[in-house]
């Protein structure tokens, strides 16, 4: 633990994963998330920014949709999305057998993805990928009214917002979703909508995926290792709102707690001398055995009651997408790629992730 001041805020950086878990597991309202500034609220005004009773209510409402069993039923919908993407890439590679892509292709706003994210009320994945250029400017001018000034970036953001809303309104599923949101009906309704999506047409591809025997466990391992080296959220901030005992020390109210996820994910003390290397095999026996002394030092989805509600969803979707894509294409970094991870709310490649895609 190291203690210092940021401006007028007494701040504690927590470097011990056990203490980090303690902070994130607080159920007594002693430790909370800091209030968000209005620009961040624009990006994400759903569950992740709620506190107290409102959070408890909404989390309870959404939780059933995030359980593994429920999500399994959504595989046809995931598959359809992947097939659409593969078809698009096949067209691009058709003439030369390869093409160069930049990041963001996967996050092009497919109706399915829109409905997923809206369902959980986390529009940030889409919005961050599209708005990333506007954020540094916004954070420079940390003024509540800045977002209303009709700058080029603000206009782009407003248009994107309109586009997303109108896409949702146009599609049948979208209409149902909006209805669902307005009336707060059961989450099962939403899953029903997603399940209907192309159930029959994608069954053949599901069978195909099974017979080609992709080493799905290895795909998992790869995803974990990527999330260890490049966790989308590099740190979490909390603050004590009451006197709080943490480990051996008692903190007064008003102490800012910084949880440096990225730093812990790269710490040799927990991951060994090869902490900087990309070595998916370290997860071959699961998360708890991946780090030294079986201490869990892996927090890409956070921990405790506010753990990412979309983690199963994200992992299933990513696993399936990767397994399917690798059956049709191989990847190679483009010579124009420059490795420069950068944080604009989430960790992302500053100059893009130019990749050469080869049709198999
Ligand atoms: C690799 C992908 C993802 C990662 C690494 C990730 C990570 C995280 C993290 C670290 C948090 C805690 C944020 C905080 O407390 O400030 C969080 C919260 C959340 N995530 Fe994710 N997430 C991912 C994908 C998703 C997806 C696909 C969804 C929805 C379908 C989702 C929905 C949410 C929600 C609703 C919360 C707020 C939970 C709460 O406050 O109770 N996430 N996520």
Can you walk me through this structure?
With 360 residues, the protein is α+β, with helices and mostly antiparallel strands. It has one domain: Orthogonal Bundle (Cytochrome p450). 46% of the residues lie in helices and 14% in strands. It has 16 helices and 12 strands. The strands form 4 sheets. It has a 5-stranded mixed β-sheet with strand order 1-2-8-5-3, covered by helices on one side. A hairpin with a 1-residue loop joins strand 10 and strand 11. Helix 6 (111-119) packs parallel to helix 10. Mean pLDDT is 73; it is low at 105-144 and 167-214. Residues 33, 47-48, 59, 116-117, 120, 122, 232-233, 236, 300-302, 306, 308-310, 313-314 line the site of protoporphyrin IX containing FE. Residues 33, 47-48, 59, 116-117, 120, 122, 232-233, 236, 300-302, 306, 308-310, 313-314 line the site of protoporphyrin IX containing FE (HEM).
């Amino acid at each position: 633990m190291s203690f210092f001041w940021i401006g007028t805020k007494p701040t504690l950086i927590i470097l011990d994963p056990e203490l980090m878990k303690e902070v994130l597991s607080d159920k007594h309202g002693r430790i909370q998330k800091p209030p968000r500034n209005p620009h961040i609220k624009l990006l994400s005004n759903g569950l992740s920014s709620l506190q107290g009773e409102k959070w408890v209510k909404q989390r309870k409402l959404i939780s059933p949709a995030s359980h593994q069993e429920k999500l399994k039923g959504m595989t046809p919908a995931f598959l359809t999305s992947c097939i659409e993407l593969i078809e698009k890439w096949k067209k691009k590679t058709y003439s030369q057998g390869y093409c160069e892509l930049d990041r963001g292709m996967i996050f092009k706003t497919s109706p399915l993805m829109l409905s997923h994210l809206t369902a959980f009320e986390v529009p940030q994945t889409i919005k961050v990928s599209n708005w990333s250029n506007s954020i540094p400017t916004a954070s420079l001018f940390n003024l509540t009214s800045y977002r209303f000034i009709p700058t080029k970036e603000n206009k782009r953001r407003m248009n994107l917002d309109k586009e997303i809303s109108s896409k949702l309104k146009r599609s049948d599923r979208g209409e149902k979703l909006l209805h669902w949101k307005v009336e707060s009906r059961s989450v099962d309704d939403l899953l029903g909508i997603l399940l209907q999506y192309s159930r029959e047409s994608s069954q053949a591809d599901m069978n195909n995926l099974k017979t080609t025997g992709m080493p799905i466990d290895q795909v998992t391992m790869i995803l974990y290792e990527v999330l260890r080296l490049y966790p989308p959220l590099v740190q979490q901030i909390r603050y004590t709102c009451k006197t709080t005992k943490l480990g051996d020390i008692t903190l007064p109210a008003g102490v800012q707690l910084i949880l440096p996820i990225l730093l812990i994910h790269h710490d040799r003390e927990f991951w060994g001398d090869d902490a900087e290397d990309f070595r998916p095999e370290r997860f071959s026996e699961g998360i708890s055995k991946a780090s030294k002394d079986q201490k869990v030092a892996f927090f890409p989805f956070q921990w405790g009651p506010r753990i990412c509600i979309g983690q199963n969803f994200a992992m299933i979707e990513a696993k399936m997408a990767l397994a399917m894509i690798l059956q049709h294409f191989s990847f190679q970094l483009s010579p124009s790629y420059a490795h420069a991870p950068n944080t604009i709310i989430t960790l992302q490649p500053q100059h893009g992730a130019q990749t050469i895609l080869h049709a198999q």
